[in-house]
Amino acid sequence: FYAVSLPPITIQDYLIRIMTYSPVPNNVLLSIVVYIERIVARTREHPEFQSFRICALSIHRLVITAITISSKYHCDNVYTNARFAKVGGLTMSHLRDLENQLLILLDFDLRV
Predict the structure, then answer these.
(1) Is 5 exposed, middle or buried (0-12, 13-18, 19+ CB in 10 A)?
(2) How far apart are CA 38 and CA 100, in angstroms?
(3) By Cβ atoms counted within 10 A, which residue in 1, 3, 43, 69 is the most buried?
(4) Residue of 61, 59, 70 whose CA lies nearest to 90
(5) Each residue of 10-33: pLDDT tens digit?
């Protein structure tokens, strides 16, 4: 999840970009807050996940990946991975890899 350098866009502007080019319903946005809270709790409880930290180098990728996964789980009509990857500034293969990592961090539990 970690970028090599700080992204040139603030997380607020990044969210605005996502909502401009691939708007998602409010329940998707609310679910990513729950997902992030679960990740924080899980990294505290399980030593094998303690190397993952949410910081300025990881938050952008975490957000776009969580939105992608949450959209697939909660919505009937979903943008493609290509769309989310383009809006998020990632390649499709990188987004796919991040999805797998996030699902493992969430223990594949996407219910809210």
Answers:
(1) exposed
(2) 16
(3) 69
(4) 61
(5) 999 999 999 999 999 999 999 999
- Residue written as token pair 């539990």: 109
Length of the chain: 112
Residues 99-110 have a mean pLDDT of 93
Going along the chain from its start, the domains and CATH numbers come out as 11-106 (1.10.472.10)
Cα–Cα distance, 24 to 40 (Å, whole number): 24
Q: Give the residue from 58, 67, 52 showing the smallest Cα distance to 110.
A: 67
Give the predicted TM-score (pTM) of the model. 0.90
